Amino acid sequence: MATIKRTNPYAVKGFTTTSPKGLSKWCKIVEPERTFNAKGTFATDLVCNPNEPAVQEFIARLETLRDIAFDETKETLGAVKSKDLKKRAVYQEETDAEGNETGNIVFKFKMNNVDDRDAPNNKIVVVDAHRNVIKQVPLVGNGSVIRCVAFANPYFMASTKDIGVSLLWSKMQLITLSAFGKKDDFEDEDGFVSTDAPFSVDEDEDEIDF
Length: 210
Description:
With about 210 residues, the chain is of the alpha/beta class. About 15% of the residues lie in helices and about 35% in strands. The protein has a single domain, classed as CATH 2.40.50.140. It has a five-stranded mixed β-barrel with strand order 2-3-6-9-8. The longest helix has 29 residues, at about 55-80.
């Protein structure tokens, strides 16, 4: 039997993981974004407090995967070729509109090349706080409380000699929904309420398990 040649300079495999709860930012989940990829990308930033234990545990798991890939790549390439090898951070620092760091961190989740995928793998599965599948997915505004499921995939970028971990997005739990769009010109008042109520979910969430 012919030996299958390994193309990655590391042997470690990725794993499916569930993120801690955080706030959504720039969530593209109803229609794929096509500005930088004509085949479409679903994506969201997950904004978290780095001091929360669940967030620290999530970081540790991703960094362990990255570090194993780094060590294996270094061994495969040898001392000379791995001289400038670098570890890429598994998260980014969040900044405000003025470019100042907020103290929070951001994890980036993506599903690329949506048009090349067959149904049902060409959509992000979305469930509510009680893990019921949401068939009519709403626009998810910044500040919505979410949790994401993704495949943590180690990668080697030969052009920059970076070793990192990408989060290949597949599922999301929508725990609380923040309205999408710009702030309204009005404020809530006591009085008439339309029967066409906006989408809402229960704030009491269960652990995601699907």
